[in-house]
Design goal:
The chain has 2 domains: 198 residues, Alpha/beta knot, CATH 3.40.1280.10; 61 residues, Helicase, Ruva Protein, domain 3, CATH 1.10.8.590. It is 43% helix and 8% strand. The protein contains 11 helices and 6 strands. The termini are far apart. This is RNA methyltransferase. One of its GO terms (molecular function) is RNA binding. InterPro entries: Alpha/beta_knot_MTases (IPR029028), RNA_MeTrfase_TrmJ/LasT (IPR004384), SpoU_MeTrfase (IPR001537), tRNA_m1G_MTases_N (IPR029026).
Length: 275
């Protein structure tokens, strides 16, 4: 949750997370540093105080996404520029596929502040935009309501039997939720899960994705290289780096690709500043 302002929403978010079997809550630069212990947060957590007690505070979104290999920006607004957009069911199915192929992966759902949601800079740090289909004339959801819906879809997809997963996997289903702190079982509802064709989720399978902080370090290195060859004027940057960031985030770089491109940056800078 980016810059939350209302303790009640934080408490409700903790309850939603625990309801659906998840355990990690991260607050990015909350308005009140003591928001997790606020009376209203504790009241609306309603038995999920352990989630509040274990929650982390992060100074910025980059810090919150450290170690994350797949981040979804949950937003109701359409964007002219940004990562590809999926609905929440596609998001859950892609997450399931990603976890099937990468056991050590970490996935994040990123929510914005209550009043304005996520800004473009926040979204540029995510791999995909995620939206919840709703009434077009009144699509804005309360942040904790949106989180509950997202968590339900993720929980449902995690428990679906192999026969209805879009990957076509035949391995035995894992017991419980791979993103959960506990274990749960469910027979699943294939009529609800089968919403999109399999090919919609094959762009992010069987690849060794770089964690967010590695990609961010590369983008900073790339910016330095562009400045070095006078392609980017730091005094008049226009929208070049945001567009570059969207491009690199959209392709979801592997660690090998990050290492390769950082090698390119290093050699550019060596050439530019060679005595």
């Amino acid at each position: 949750m980016v810059s939350p302002t209302h303790p009640g929403n934080v408490g409700s978010a903790a309850r939603a997370i625990k309801n659906m079997g998840f355990g990690d809550l991260v607050l990015v630069n909350p308005k009140d540093s003591g928001i997790l212990a606020h009376e209203e947060a504790l009241a609306l957590a309603s038995g999920a105080t352990d989630i509040l007690q274990a929650a982390h505070l992060a100074p910025d979104l980059d810090a919150a996404l450290a170690g994350i290999t797949l981040a979804f920006a949950l937003t109701a607004r359409t964007r002219d520029m940004g990562p590809p957009s999926l609905d929440i069911r596609q998001t859950a199915q892609l997450s399931r596929t990603h976890l099937n192929n990468h056991a050590d992966t970490r996935i994040a759902i990123v929510l914005g502040t209550e009043r304005t949601g996520l800004d473009n800079d926040d979204i540029s740090r995510c791999h995909r935009i995620c939206h919840i289909p709703a009434n077009p004339s009144y699509s804005s959801l309360n942040v904790s309501q949106a989180l509950l819906l997202a968590a339900w879809e993720l929980n449902y997809a995690m428990q679906a039997p192999p026969a209805v997963r879009h990957t076509g996997a035949t391995a035995p289903a894992q017991s419980g939720n791979p993103l959960s702190t506990g274990t749960q079982t469910s027979a699943g509802r294939p009529d609800l899960l089968l919403a999109r064709p399999a090919h919609a989720y094959t762009d992010m399978v069987d690849r060794d994705y770089a964690p967010a902080e590695k990609v961010e370090a590369f983008i900073n290195h790339w910016e330095s290289a562009l400045i070095g060859i006078d392609f980017l004027n730091p005094n008049y940057p226009k929208k070049l780096m945001p567009r570059m960031r969207y491009m690199f985030t959209r392709i979801h770089m592997t660690q090998e690709e990050v290492d390769m491109m950082r090698g390119v940056c290093t050699n550019i800078l060596k050439t530019v500043y060679r005595p």
